[in-house]
Please model this.
Amino acid sequence: MVDIIKNSIDKFETGYVFTVNDFNLAVESHRNVNKMLNAFVATGYLRKLAKGKFYKPQISKFGELSPDTYQIVKDLIQKNGKLIGYITGYSAFNDFALTTQVPAVLEIGMRKEKKAIVRGIYRIRFIRQENTITKENIPLLRLLDCLRFFKNIPDTTSDDACRRLMFLTGKLNKQEVFRIKKLALKYAPQAIALLGAMLETMNPQEDTDMLLKKLNPLTTYKLDISNEILPTQKKWHIQ
Model:
């Protein structure tokens, strides 16, 4: 049995996170296999990410590398082949080149709220997402999350962050622009206002009525973006 399990593990890529379910074994064997995997951890052959989750470490010339973000959270964002969440927050800031700061906290958008957990060196937080999570929606939801948490983007200025977000939004096609406006309606007013202001700055003819109608005209949003970068912000109650 030990040789069978070890041969299977040898076929996994380094950094691939697996459980006893990754082995084609009868359920009654799972407990023994789990003990075997923990013994492999003790010898240094494997690393343990969390209870029941293991991986082969990847060693570079700079030292040992952790599994990539997807491997760390894949069981939290997909269930029975269906997407139930997506990686966002500081990881999105980094992926979108809004910051170069490497996140120590992983944030996952999902419909249901959950308590934060710890895996390896990461603390994982869950952010409630009111929209339906689909493969097509996720890139737009991640962009909207950056607007939602605009003030939290580290190591940058409001002008630089806004300029970068407009560049990313400007790459959307007409169908994506329409969809992101619809998705934004379930976001907090700040995200709606910032999206509307950016869209109108890039295209004065853009139809943003659905966004403007969602805002309370008596509420303002202090984002410290200059008028040179976002000249439409007054209309959207941004200061």
